[in-house]
Amino acid sequence: MNTLNRRQFMRLTGAATVAMSQPVVLGRVRESAQRPNILFCISDDQTWLHCSAYGSKMVKTPHFDRVAREGVLFRNAFVSVPSCNPSRSSILTGMPFYRLKEASMNHTPWPRGLKVYTDILTGNGYHVGFTGKGCGPTDWKVAGRSCNPAGVAYNQYFHQSGSNTTLRSIASLRSTRGISNTDYARNFEDFLDKRPQGLPFCFWYGGRDPHRVFQKGIGLREGKKLSDAEVPAFYPDSPEIRGDLLDYAVHIEWFDQHLGRMLKKLEEIGELDNTLIVVTSDNGMAFPRCKATCYEFGIHMPLAIRWGGKVKPRRTVNDFVSFTDFAPTFLEAAGIPVPRNMTGKSLLPILQSVRSGQVDPNRDHVVVGVERHFPGGRKGGWGYPIRATRTEQFLYIQNLAPDRWPAADPDGPVWPDDDPTGGFGDCDGSPTKTYLCNHRQDEAYYYDLAFGKNPAEQLYDVTKDPYQLHNLAGQGRYASIKADLAARLKKDLVETRDPRAIGKGDELDEYARKYQKPL
């Protein structure tokens, strides 16, 4: 494992699993070839289908595809929650979002006492850092931390006009609007340059793309055609929506370019095969009926994992993966005991298998949900609590406050303010949202799909209805299936101590009201 004796190793790992207010190196641990580096790459707001490895023609992601080809492509990876901060917090803690107190929602303080895998790795001799977007939006300083839960920030390098990139529109990069001008790959090199000799590293590449705001029209300027756009069936087919999708696609490709540069750097320094590389996203695309919802386009994520000679390449796996599984995976790969409070399960048995398809028959479903996304979208500060379970065939959703608007109040504020049409603050402003709101009369079916109120229960056969257009919950012939899924969901929520399942839902409501932004 390393040059420490067993007593020293247990002392270090035991100390590291104590809740830490900030990362502290507990002692210099010598590296050996068995301790892998970890490169965790997470885009911002990308639905699973939008990588060319999954068959998309709208998006070209050669570097994601390479990781998938030289490792494992997962077909059933799901967030714990389709919202930025709680999703990222569930990754770091290995726990479902509803266990994370204030971190179960956006724009809240980081709670004291949460164990995160980055602190544990730091305490066990790893060089830990991040670039771009770490955990957030959250205020981690109030917890007494010296850095973001994702690690020490490496964000000093930015692109300049005319810099070396394949994106033709580099001259129009702006730091606050459109494609981020953060030079993520150069910041990764800076992180590696500052690594103490002999230490393994853990780096979080948090791309800010394809988070809105998009550079409007960049898809066409980069050579895409409106006919390339892949329009989901829950939208009408219009040039405005097609153009919005193409702009989104270019932002994904920008994230992928930096991934490619990082892979090249690892090859140059001879550490590619000793690096566990994970590429995914934090929640679905920032479009109506996607991000912040528990439909497929909100919860289903791209995922590819590569680890040199440790993982057999060219495999596609159907096992269900939750984002709570990442932290236990990283710790186990590093030879560190996994804290008992982490409910996620390590992916190492799948990665080290030689099989494709279904590897572990017990990985046949996931649990997802939401509490509150945008902090100012509803009067009184209320959220829109959802719990759901996804199996190979079905998506079952429980809307715990069906009297409220799912996408927030229609007369509430909207982010970003570039395109503030329509209220419904849980759905980012966008050309697609504006089109639906401006055509709410002649496109009422699509408008209602995106913004209308939902019943208490929803059931979809995702194999026949991949866009969740036909709710089966009220049909008698599906009654037993619905009952079985509801019972299974309740069992999972009770076992993982969801406050709403054990009579303490008021705690989550209080967080939503306390940290609201006034309408």
Number of helices: 14
- The CATH topology of the largest domain is given as Alkaline Phosphatase, subunit A
Strand order of the largest sheet: 7-5-8-1-9-11-2-12
- Provide the domain count: 2
The CATH architecture of the largest domain can be given as 3-Layer(aba) Sandwich
The N- to C-terminal Cα distance equals: 55 Å
Strand content: 5-15%
Mean pLDDT score? 91
Provide the low-confidence segments as ranges.
1-33, 169-176
Oligomer description: single chain
Alpha carbon gyration radius? 22 Å
* The first-level CATH class name of the largest domain: Alpha Beta
Tell me, briefly, the overall form.
globular
What is the tally of beta strands?
17
Helicity level? 25-40%
CATH homologous superfamily placement of the largest domain: Alkaline Phosphatase, subunit A
By secondary-structure content and strand pairing, the structural class works out as alpha/beta
Describe this structure in words.
With 519 residues, the protein is of the alpha/beta class. The chain folds into 2 domains: 6-360, Alkaline Phosphatase, subunit A (3-Layer(aba) Sandwich); 367-514, no CATH class. Helices cover 27% and strands 13% of the residues. The protein has 14 helices and 17 strands. The strands form 4 sheets. The chain has an 8-stranded mixed β-sheet, with helices on both faces. The protein has a 4-stranded antiparallel β-sheet with strand order 14-15-16-17, with helices on one face.
Brief summary of the model shown:
This protein has 519 residues and is of the alpha/beta class. It is built from 14 helices and 17 strands.
